[in-house]
Design goal:
By secondary structure, the chain is an all-alpha fold. The protein contains 15 helices and no strands. It has one domain. About 70% of the residues lie in helices and about 0% in strands. The longest helix has 25 residues.
Length: about 280
Amino acid sequence: MEMKNINNIVIDNYLRLKPSVFFLPAFLLITIVFSLYNQDALSTNAYIRIQKESFFFINYYLGQYPNLQFNLTQLGDDLIFLSLLSILIIYIPKIWESLISSLLLSLVSSYLLKKIFAVPRPAAVFDHSSFIIVGNTLSGHTSLPSGHSITIFAILTILLFAFMPSKTGYRILWSFFIILTGSVLVFTRVGVGAHYPLDVIIGAIIGYILGLTGIFISRKYKVWSRINDKRYYPVFILLFLICGISLINRIMIDNLVIYYLSLVFLTISLYKTITIYVKK
């Protein structure tokens, strides 16, 4: 199947979405708020208190695999996840139109919500020797919501509906796979000691909403439609080079497998972009 046809399939899949898809995530957020209210846990201290046991439990068991957790949690970083998807700029630009809008909204939403709630991270509350910390010790008042979780689910939501199968059975399996993958990735934030369980759950739901929002924006407006215009490929070539240098710098610091993988995908995208631009 030609890539152009796949891009058209993605466009068709996005056009099938109805505003009602926002009902479920909105209901889940409302349910969480009511649950916290019923537990008298809307204050910062109570919010942390009701999650203390679950945080230590999840952190302990996931923390037994620190290298795996540290690699997987990097996918909540835009640079890493988007490098893996960089080739889609060339072949399935419609996905990137949605990604750009969604991730810009995610960046703003994450920053504002963290400022509003100002929930201290686990390392700012608990003794550092009482739980597992992998990577840098994060001790600011920026725990709720998890920005990594927002990013992960925003991206996965866009991929979920982009490649949604037509048959019901396959749709269920595909949706289950995406949700399971997203859950594994976002809970690494608890595994590395950076967030409480509700931080990542709430972040995931917000990410889902913002992923859908990005899709609807790309449907209605042509803000990023020039992504597919080869005249703008030099911009992507420059961005790929900058991202590649950043990844090399990270490899020199942490030497993680996921960094190498992202660099490989980015290098392939850079090569293809240059080749197509030169031949245009």
